[in-house]
Amino acid sequence: MRRALSFPVSALLGVSLALAPLSAQTFRGAPRPPRSAISFALTPAAGCAYDTATCNYFSAMSVQPDSTRKSLLYTLVTCFESHGLFSVWDHYIIAAMHDSQAGLVDMITGTVGANNPSSLMVFTTDRGYKGNGTTARLLSNATLASSTHFGTVTGGLDIWFNIAPSAANMGLVGAASNTNTEIGWTSATSISGRINGTVGIGTTTPGSHHNLTVFRIDTSNVWVSLDGATPTSAASTNDSTSLTGFVAAGYSRGGYGDEQISAWGWGAPTSTNVTDTHACVSTYLTAIGAQ
What is the pTM of this model? Predict the structure, then answer.
């Protein structure tokens, strides 16, 4: 008697077989069930088509980006990964997105990283969140004290903004409950930044759209980089008690800004990290027309 060969048909066909329920009888000695009782169903590949960090980023968005933006964001995430920036920044939020909720998602953690209290910040697609100069700010969901990298000796703030302020002392980004960690305007064209210190460093900012990073790598100095340029330093005192409160975008020095925030983050970057971060984010913002 010939023996029947047994092999997984689904493996050969690349499909899954869904068998309709049959009676307790077997085919042997019993009528064969009607052909309609056996169905073939193609099963598409499950999951996300990108790397884990990108998939986590997308999964936190309530409105998914289209394929073009997904490709741009994938390039941004992998740029961060290739330069080791996921181990540098505690949080990094791209506000210039396709949707207001997506503009609050933290690329590093793959979770919603900020909130818009009372919805006072106004969102514009591909541009980000704009303040009103009096009451509006974005507020992080995590405190400085909970940071893995940002510390009392090593720490940095990064801000991308558009539209110059209408008055002096307008806020860009800073710790919401202390004035020793912030970046803000000191005049219509001059910006000052400080990280855990009482002495800051200033820079002149012409034009409308810029990236400013202020960071500390020791107890003696604060460094600043404008638009990815080689950072320069200034002597600064160090305040070992300033890791308090949440981080706010559109707010610092007790004042509110009216700029449009397109990206912001905090962590513990070095000079090389600052340059690499600028290049990665600039590629994305340029592609969507935000700068």
Answer: 0.83
pLDDT of residue 253: 78
- Do residue 165 and residue 255 come from a single domain? yes
Q: Is 46 a member of any domain?
A: no
Contact call for residues 113 and 247 (beta carbons, < 8 A)? no
Other Cβ atoms within 10 Å of 214 Cβ, number: 30
Same domain, 105 and 33: no
Residue 2 covered by a domain = no
Report d(CA 283, CA 156) in Å as an integer: 21
- Look at the block and give the residue holding tokens 């801000």: 159
Same domain, residue pair 26 and 154: no
Name the residue range of residue 30's domain: 9-41
Q: What is the pLDDT of residues 136-185, one digit of tens each?
A: 999 999 999 999 999 999 999 999 998 766 665 578 999 988 889 999 88
Q: Could you tell me the CA-to-CA distances from 144 to 71, 152, 213 in Å, in that order? A: 31, 10, 17
**pLDDT of the residue at 36:** 38
Half-sphere exposure at residue 83, Cβ-oriented, CA atoms within 13 angstroms: 21
The confidence score (pLDDT) of residue 41 equals 32
Token pair recorded at residue 120:
């006072």
Half-sphere exposure of 235 (CA within 13 A, CB side): 0
How far is Cα of residue 279 from the mean position of the Cα atoms in its chain?
15
**Which CATH number do you get for residue 232?**
2.60.120.200
